[in-house]
Every structure is written in structure tokens, then in C-alpha cells.
Amino acid sequence: MKEPATGYRLPAAGQKILFLLAAMACSHAAAGPEAARAAAAARADKQERSSSGVEVEDAIHGVRYRLPAGPDMWQVTREGDARSPSGVEAEVSSFPLAKPSAATQCRDQAHNRLFRRDASTPAADTPRDESTGDSPPSWSFTSGPASSPARNRWAFFSRGADCLVLHVTGPAGEAFGDETFKSAATTFEALALPPDRQREVDLLAGMGFLERRDPASALERFEALAKREPDLAKAHFGALMAGFELGAEAYARALPHGKFALKAERELTTEQRQLALRAVGVMQLAQNQVKEAAETLSELVVRAPDLAEGQYNYACALARLGDKQGAIDHLKAAVRLDGELVSHARDDEDLKSLRGSPAFEQLLSAGSPSR
Hints:
- This protein has 371 residues and is α+β, with helices and mostly antiparallel strands.
- Helix content is 53%, strand content 16%.
- It has helices at residues 12-30, 32-51, 103-113, 175-187, 195-211, 215-228, 233-246, 251-263, 270-286, 290-303, 308-321, 324-337, 341-346, 358-366, and strands at residues 54-58, 63-67, 75-76, 82-83, 89-96, 128-134, 137-143, 150-159, 162-171, 189-190.
- A seven-stranded antiparallel beta sheet has the order 3-4-5-9-8-7-6.
- Strand 4 and strand 5 form a beta hairpin.
């Protein structure tokens, strides 16, 4: 808001409001005993609430814990973070694992992955004065510059395949931080998440593993979700893509998920269906389900005619089925889109039925024809 310039005068209505406010202030000042009793009651209420501590419920992470009483009131956000005027703070975070695990495994994962030391790590960020505990599994350390070090206290809990982490931080040497950590850790309760929230957590965990190039863990999370919700196409699609990333050794395991995902077209985006068709077609060829692969890949080339890989794999399926002319036509389309496929086609066992035919040899010798 822009402040009024010097000499600015309130309009008459504004002056009247100020006069009324001043009169109200005078009336409160005159009622001394009543005001004193109200102030005393407010202080008593604050003291009572402070002496009993504060219960924090974090709806985002689905946890509940209690903070100790302190000389000042805790400030708790809607997200469940709590701050004390003394500088002590408490919050909760989470990270996923592939399978249901114990809290000690959560601590080991955090210790090994979150604070990897290397030459580029600033000295102030390197954990110092580390200690661990077992009830609950915990890890404490000091970080920050020597002029203002911070004490970090972490406690670990598990809910299925998800790790929950209680963080309590504060100035090093601040006794209230230790008291806060003890109270919060011993009263910490992991609540069961509603089904829709747990579904969201599992989907995000699986996608996160895929983004971090950990398809084995992604497959575990997606399959666990698909087992719990067998009609959820997104879980089956995730399991398919994770198996595809893992490679041939996971194709037999992932292929049923892909077939289920393709039956639920309305639950997949256009891009997701194309990815599913591509993965299922490749898996079916690898599993010698050639007729099924041809049907899958024929839909892919209709939906994505400019996808060189789709045209090429469809040619492979047709060649294995004995449709030489169809295989040549789609192989030509693939090479037009990506000339480097010529060298791959030369030694591809799926195309061995085409070797020796004039059209195939001409295609190989031509290299990469112009469009």
C-alpha cells in the first residue's frame, strides 16, 4: 500500500471513523478492572495450552506427533511445520523405497544417499559430531558454519514402502531442541492414508524411480499398486514401462501389465497408448508372440506413422509371418524416416526371410533414400 504524502487529510467520513475508534479506545481504557481480568484470562489460557504442549497433525504426510511445552507458543503451519521463537523447528518429510522396509533401512538409505561426501561438498555442509539411536532409529549431526552451527536430529519411521522422516533442527547447544526431538519422536504416529492418497503416493514413487533410472524399484512399486488395485490402468502402464526399461529379462513379467493397460484405452493419454503399443509390440516379438505383435504394431503405425521404430518393428513382424511385400513396404517407410536403420536391417534375424530378394537387396544398397 502506498503511504499518503505529508499534509494528506482524511475526508470527513474517514475523520468520523477515527473519532469512533478513539472513543472505543477510551472506553476500553476506562474499564480497567474488566480489561485486566480479560488480559489475565488470556494469559492463563496461553499458559495452560503451553504447559500441555502442542499436538501437530501433518495431513500431507499423514502423521501426528506432540511438541513439548515451551516459554513461547509454537507456530504451526497448515502443512504441519512447527517453529518456536527460540529457533527450534520441526517438520516431516518422506521418501520411497522399492518394497516395505523397516525404519532402520530408512535410516541407512538416508545416511548413504542424502549426505554423500565428496571433494565438492563445502565443509560447512559436511555432517559433524554424528550419533545414532535405535528407538526409534535416529541420526543426529551438526552442520553449518562454526560461527552459527545447527544441530540436526532425524528420526525414521516406515509405512509400507515409504520412509517418514521427522526433522528437528535448532541452534547447536540449545537444550530445547533435544527436548523437542524426544517429545516428537516418542509420540510420532504414522496414520493410514486414505486409498486415493495412498494411490497417489505409489504412482509418484514409481514415476520418481523411473526418472532416476531405477526401473527395478519402479516395477516393484507399480506391481504392488496393481495388486492392490487390479483395475487401475495407470499402475499396469507404469509396470509395463518399468519392465521395458529393465530389458528382455523382465519382458515376460511386464507383458501382462501391458496387455491390461491397452484394454483400458480411455484411462491412457494418446502419448501413453503409443508408448504402450511400442513396448508391448517389442515384448511380443521377443516372446515369439508374432501374430499378436503384428496386431499391436499395426495399430502403432496407424497412430504414429512417422515413428521409424514402429514401422521397422512392424516390418519385422510381417517378415516373420511370411508377408514379404508388406515387410518391404514398411521397411522402406522406416528407412525413409531413419536411414541408420539400414545397417541394423542387414543383420537382423527377424528379417532373414527377406534376404536374397531383389527388393531387400536394393533397399540395403540404396542406403538412405531421399524422401
